[in-house]
Amino acid sequence: MTSPRAHTLDDVARACRVSKMTVSRALRQQRGVSPQLAERIRATAEKLGYHTNPALGSVMKALRQRRASDYRENLAFVWTHPGNRPLPLLVPWRDHARARAERLGYRLDEFFLRAPGMTTPRLRAILQARGIRGILFAPDTAPPLPHFSFDATGFAAVLLGSSLQNRGLARVQFDHLQLIHLALRQVRKAGYRRPALLLSPSIDGRTQGRLRAGYLVHSPAPATERFRLIYLGDLDDRVAIAAWLKAREADVAIYLEGDRRRFLDSAGLRVPQKIAFVSLNREPGMTHIAGVVQSAEALASTAVDMVAAQLQRHEFGRQSFVQKVMLEGEWVPGLTLPHRRLEHSPRE
Question: Where would I find the HTH lacI-type domain in this sequence (predicted)?
C-alpha cells in the first residue's frame, strides 16, 4: 500500500487561491501579507498537513546572505579623452569590463577625467569620497601619444591600450608586433607579395611604431621595397592613397581600423578584384573581411583581473617593476583576401 502524497506549497496556494510567493511570505511571517490572509493561509497549511522544510529554509537563507556578501566594492572606469561622452570605439571595452567586474563581485562606475569643470584633484577627491580604490584608465584615441597626469597614490590602477603614457602603472594592451606578423603570414600563404601597410601619424604614434617595425621584418615584399610600401599620412585622402597604391603596385591594403572596402572601391581599387584588403582590427560586424580579431572582452577582463589582484595584494600607486600584459590576436579568413595561384618560373 502506497503512502499518501505529501502536500506541497502549490497545494496550499491553490486552496487559498493565492500565489506561492504569498503563501511563502505568510508562513515565514514576512511583510506584504495582511494579517487576515496570513491567518487563513496558516490554517489551510495546517489542515492539509503542510510543513516547511527547516533544512531547505536554512540553505536558501545562506544563499541569500552569500549573494549579498559577494559584493566587494566599486571600481572606476575613467575616460581620458576631452568631453563627457564615451568614445564609441571603446564602449565595448567598458561594457566587458563592467560584466567582468560584476562576475567578480565589483561594480563599475564611469568617470570623465577631462569633462568640462573636472580636474584631476577633483576626480581624486570624488573617488576617495565614494571609497573607490581601483581604477581602469581608457585611452584617448585622438592624440598620437597622450600623457595624462593623475596621482595614483592610494589607488590600484591599470592602463588600457598602448597609447596612454603614465610611468609606474600596470598596463594591458594588444601585441601589435604579433598582429602584423600574423596578418603578413596569412598574406604570404595566400600568394601575395606586395602588401601595403597604411597608417596615420596618430595610429603610428599610439602603437609606438610597432606595426611599422613588424612589417619591415615580416613582409613578403622584397627587402628593398618594404619602406616604400608603408604609407604614413591622411587615411581619408582618397586621391592620394589611390595614386600611392597604384604607383607601388600594391596587391594588399592593410589597415588597422575600419572597413575600408567602400573607400578603396571609390578610389578605383575594387576589393578584391583590383586589390585585396586585410583589417588588423576585425570587428564582429565586418562580415566577409579577412583580418585579425582583437578581443575587447579579453582586454577588458584582463584589466579588471589585474586591478582586483592589486587590491587583494594591497598594491597601490606607482610600482617599481611594472606589470604589462600583451594580448595576441586571432586570424579570421575572409573573401577580401582570396588565395592566388602563384606563378612559378619554368624549370631549366
Answer: 8-61
